[in-house]
Write a structure and sequence with these properties.
Distance between the termini of chain B: 28 Å
Shape of chain A: globular
Oligomer: heterodimer
Largest sheet of chain B: 2 strands, antiparallel
Strand order of the largest sheet of chain A: 1-2-3
Number of helices of chain B: 22
Strand content of chain B: under 5%
Number of strands of chain B: 2
Distance between the termini of chain A: 40 Å
Structural class of chain A: mainly alpha
Largest interface: A-B, 31 and 35 residues
Chain lengths: 564, 492
């Protein structure tokens, strides 16, 4: 079992889907148990992985440093003179994917619990939800880009239907917008993958082919390619193995992405264009300004559980893709573009925070605050310092927990009154004390109060950003300086909302039935308390997570600096 | 050699055609003398000839697979593994069409008549000759053998719409045929021969002035572009699709198209490197992609939508003709295989929905996803195949086609190929919009239709799931098919 633990983790929900097919009748109660059970098992497996993971790290993107690696040839296609396309079923875990797997298991479990009261076509809902539970961990564990793309694409359709069928009033508009934006992003990513596939080779697999001729080593093959002897050979194996792609020697010197390629399009090299395409593709997913406009719509219309998954984990795939794929494969280009990337980060932080300030819909405000917080990830990446990049991963993890909590809290209120307009409530603390306390915790966590996980993340990012600005001048100093304004802004919109909705004398808009405003039920309490507990846990003891991801991110930075 | 003896010897290569002809005559006699009125007998007769022909071809392919080109019937027809394989594809397509007609809820009038089976068999026979043709005579005759039964099939519902569709189809078809005949006469005048594939003819044709080449090729290819509904011979498609029954549509959009594309592929192989031919083809394909994909965006009627989709798909398949070398031929076959399974499934589900909602506007399908969840789910998979989304083999089909054109671009650096790739990428994005139109109304719109009939369910479900199963399975194991195709395309 231990050798296939990652496959089991990914495909466990498939059993759940099969189970759903065999449950007859319209009783939604049995369906929800399947989701909760499956995600609980996934959570247990990821906690096991998390505790068993030993952060011994040698080198970023090397086979030795991956734990629980699973690699099997899936298929090999011979494409004429182009050579052979080899696709592997290749999974593996390092500190970066570990944190994301733990986060996705927590968030998916929380989402399954939040789906408890879905009654409309419950069977279809839970089946789609379980499909998401396959594709999200799959995305974080796949190390073959073909497999990654498959899982990446496969998130799209379930999410599209979950928003489009179970969403709010303007669900059709929101789901189509979500679909189009994400599809555009994935097409950009696919184009880059195809270019990568054409312009690289996989010496390790080619060596397996010629293993009968003793004495041939990987170096021989690489020298053969670079001296031009082996070029245009139909037995050249191309693959999208991320580990091989991270080695610049494995690019054809005269290929589209090779060092000798002088082809430029509109004044930029193909490598730059590929980096831009990957950047835009993943920034759409993240989302960052100016590609963020799908997110508020999708969030406002999505049902609570889907919002939780969307903010908690789906956005992180954008950041993960940048850290895992865009930066390591195009380090030079990423380094050159750091000014622009930093600018995108700072703009996202400030713009989204300003927009959040004027929102009257609580859910929309939280959606914009998500965008603003994702801007920090981009800023940390632009600086490309160990602290900043660790902070970016920590920010993704912590924001996953916090935003899940925030959207669950909005869901609690919306379930009761079907109204989430901020001006329609006042003094809620006297009617719903427990709820108000959790909201306060969540708001403070999100604005970065020390002692909560968000603080650790943001402080790390700022250290990294200032270090990057001063040491290597990757970004100008004014960028982190201006970005600190984002902290102030997030404090303002959260505290202002707290003051408007929860403090003062209790009153509500006349359209709201006050009798429905009951405090938290036991099951809600259990879910919300445990999430807040986790936020405080990772705020007080950041070492739990930092010890696991730290070595990986150090390796990432040294890899990045070497390549640059 | 004695000519009679030669013909007698050649007959051994015509066993599948003879089987088709035999069952055609049998159905004709059964129908004529009213020996039976039961359509199952007609269908069974046709099916037996398909199955026997298919088995015979398979046997030939594996037995004599290593024997390369055999020319027979006085250099009129060719036998080689590629052609055997193409005929097998046509047989599969024929079987699907047959089952489609048997199960389709709207094709009662079609399946009860003996003529339907006769015409289907005749079309298939024409396609068999077309893929094996070596001479322009055979090309012309086989195209006519496909066209005439098609005209009748389209018009055979005998109502106003179907007659209109039939007349339009006939007029366009007759025009295209005339143009082709004119081209053939010019070719004969220029080269004093019609044996397209002989080295002598190719040499003579190469010395023809470029301008004449353009004109002659344009004229001769007209009929083939008409069959594959490529630009500028596409306008019949939406009108004909709108007016004819789904069973007929299915035949028109699969069998003759597959045959015509395979013939075009053989033609491209001999014209490889000829500037005028590839330029002409690239222009036609680029425009087809443009017209098909972007006109489909505006459609609100399911039939017209599928018509423009078939023009666009023709463009994508045609892209494989632009690339050179083995990969493009493999890509073409791969795409055709995906196409031949997914199109009947798509049309069948639409037929099924039209029957229960009594209308072919996309709006009529609103909310049906809740009434028919499984059928709708299968339809989503079919549409994903046609778009080219994973996890369906449509994804690979598109990737292969794009890669083959890109590879060719890298060798010849022709900007028009880059243009075609650009249009195709844009078209793929656009195709998401129109292919998702129907699933969108199935799942997202509220159910508002009051006339709803339940029809027999099980066999339809089995048919669509079986026809889409290979496409999904091929996504997970595309390697064996590509390996097989690699062996097959060597003989082109």
């Amino acid at each position: 079992m231990a050798t296939h633990i990652l496959s089991i983790l990914i495909f466990l929900p498939l059993l759940g889907v099969l189970g759903l097919l065999f449950i007859q009748g319209d009783d939604h109660r049995s369906y929800r148990w399947v989701s909760v059970l499956v995600t609980a098992l996934q959570l247990a497996l990821s906690i096991y992985l998390f505790t068993a993971f030993k952060p011994e790290y040698f080198q970023f993107h090397s086979y030795d440093s991956l734990v629980y690696m699973e690699k099997a040839n899936w298929f090999q296609l011979s494409l004429g003179n182009l050579g052979i396309l080899s696709v592997n079923y290749f999974l593996g875990i390092d500190g970066l994917s570990l944190s994301m797997i733990l986060l996705s298991a927590i968030v998916l479990f929380a989402g399954a619990c939040a789906s408890w009261n879905i009654t409309k076509q419950a069977k279809g809902y839970h089946a789609l939800y379980l499909l998401l539970c396959i594709s999200i961990p799959g995305c974080f564990l796949a190390l073959d880009l073909f497999l990654f793309f498959l899982f990446f694409e496969f998130m799209l359709l379930p999410m599209f239907f979950l928003i489009g069928i179970w969403g709010g009033v303007r669900r059709e508009y929101a789901s189509i917008k979500f679909f189009l934006y994400t599809l555009l992003g994935s097409i950009l990513i696919l184009i880059v993958f195809i270019v990568l596939f054409i312009s690289t080779y996989n010496p390790a697999e080619m060596m397996e082919y010629v293993s009968s001729n003793a004495g041939v080593t990987i170096q021989h093959i690489q020298e053969g390619i670079h001296s031009g002897e082996l070029i245009n050979n139909p037995s050249i194996i191309h693959s999208l193995d991320l580990i091989q792609l991270s080695n610049p020697v494995n690019y054809f010197p005269n290929g589209l992405l090779g060092e000798h390629n002088t082809l430029t399009v509109f004044g930029y090299s193909i490598r730059t264009w590929c980096f831009i395409a990957l950047l835009v593709g993943f920034l759409i997913k993240l989302p960052a300004f100016p590609f963020h406009t799908w997110l508020p719509d999708a969030h406002v219309e999505a049902p609570t559980a889907v919002s939780v998954v969307l903010a908690g984990i789906l956005l992180k795939i954008g950041g993960y893709g940048l850290i895992r794929i865009a930066w390591p494969l195009f380090p030079q280009e990423a380094g050159d573009a750091s000014w622009w990337i930093g600018l995108i980060g700072v703009t996202t932080i400030l713009y989204a925070a300003f927009v959040a300030l004027i929102q009257t819909d609580l859910k929309k405000m939280i959606a914009y605050s998500s965008v603003s917080h994702m801007g920090f990830v981009v800023l940390g990446l632009a600086a490309a310092k160990t602290e900043g990049i660790t902070g970016a991963v920590y920010q993704m993890f912590s924001h996953g927990l916090i935003s899940a909590l925030l959207f669950l809290l909005v869901g609690v209120l919306y379930d009761r009154t079907h109204d989430r307009m901020i001006p329609n409530y006042r003094g809620l603390i006297s009617k719903m004390p427990a709820y108000s306390v959790i909201v306060t915790i969540a708001f403070f966590a999100s604005l970065g109060l020390p002692g909560m996980s968000g603080f650790i993340a943001e402080i790390l990012i700022f250290i990294g950003a200032f270090k990057g600005a001063i040491d290597t001048a990757a970004i100008p100093v004014w960028m982190p300086l201006v970005a600190t304004l984002g902290l102030l802004l997030s404090a303002s919109y959260y505290l202002w909302t707290l003051q408007r909705m929860f403090f003062g004398k209790f009153s509500t808009h006349m359209s709201i039935d006050r009798n429905t405003l009951k405090d938290l039920t036991v099951s809600e309490k259990a879910l919300l308390y445990s999430l807040s507990g986790l936020i405080i846990l990772f705020g007080l003891f950041p070492a739990i997570l930092l010890n696991k991801i730290g070595p990986s991110m150090e390796a990432w930075t040294s890899f990045f600096i070497n390549m640059k | 050699m004695n000519i009679l003896e030669h013909i007698r010897e050649s007959l051994q290569f015509l066993v599948p055609e003879a089987l088709l002809l035999g069952s055609l005559l049998l159905v004709l006699f059964l129908d004529m003398f009213q020996a039976t009125r039961k359509n199952t007998y007609f269908a069974a007769t046709a099916f037996i000839s398909f199955a026997a022909g298919g088995l015979y071809l398979l046997n030939q392919l594996f037995d004599r697979g290593s024997i390369p080109n055999v020319e027979f019937m006085d250099h009129m027809l060719l036998q080689n593994p590629t052609i055997l394989f193409s005929k097998i594809l046509l047989i599969i397509s024929g079987i699907l069409a047959l089952v489609f007609i048997q199960l389709s809820p709207s094709s009662l009038w079609l399946r009860e008549r003996g003529e339907t089976y006769i015409l289907l068999l005749a079309i298939l026979m024409g396609c068999f000759f077309l893929v094996a043709a070596l001479n322009l005579f055979v090309v012309f005759l086989s195209l006519e053998l496909i066209s005439v039964p098609s005209y009748i099939l389209v018009a055979s519902r005998f109502d106003k719409k179907s007659t209109e569709a039939g007349i339009k189809y006939l007029l366009y078809g007759a025009f295209a045929t005339g143009v082709m005949l004119f081209g053939i006469s010019l070719i004969y005048g220029l080269t004093a021969g019609m044996d397209l594939f002989s080295p002598r003819w190719i040499m003579v044709f190469a010395s023809v002035p470029v301008f004449s080449k353009w004109i002659v090729l344009g004229l001769v290819l007209a009929a083939l572009f008409f069959k594959t509904s490529l630009f500028p011979f596409h306008p019949w498609t939406p009108d004909t699709y709108e007016g004819s029954g789904w069973g007929v549509l299915n035949i028109l959009s699969t069998i003759p198209k597959i045959a015509a594309f395979i013939f075009l592929m053989r033609l491209s192989a001999i014209f490889e490197g000829m500037q005028s031919y590839s330029l002409l083809l690239a222009t036609i394909i680029g425009f087809s992609l443009l017209v098909g994909n972007f006109s489909a965006l505006m459609q609100s009627n399911a039939r017209r939508l599928m018509a423009y989709s078939s023009i666009a798909q023709g463009g994508f398949i045609g892209m494989a003709l632009l690339g050179g070398g083995d990969l493009s031929q493999q890509a073409l076959f791969f795409y055709l295989i995906v196409y031949l399974f997914s199109v009947p499934a798509a049309l069948f589900v639409l037929d099924y929905f039209e029957n229960i909602s009594k209308g072919d506007a996309v709006n009529n399908f609103n909310g049906l996803g809740k009434k028919e969840p499984v059928m709708s789910l299968i339809f989503v998979i079919v549409m994903a195949t046609l778009i080219g989304l994973p996890p369906t083999a449509g994804f690979f089909a598109k990737i292969f086609v794009f890669t083959s054109v890109w590879q060719h671009y890298e060798t010849i650096h022709s900007p028009i190929l880059l243009g075609v790739i650009g249009v195709a990428v844009a078209g793929t994005v656009a195709s998401v919009f129109y292919y998702m139109k129907v699933p969108y109304s199935l799942f997202f719109k509220e159910f508002e239709n009051t006339v709803i009939l339940t029809s027999k369910h099980k066999s339809s479900l089995v048919f669509v799931s079986l026809s889409i199963l290979p496409v999904v399975a091929l996504f997970f194991t595309p390697d064996w098919l590509m390996d097989l195709l690699k062996v097959i395309v060597v003989y082109i």
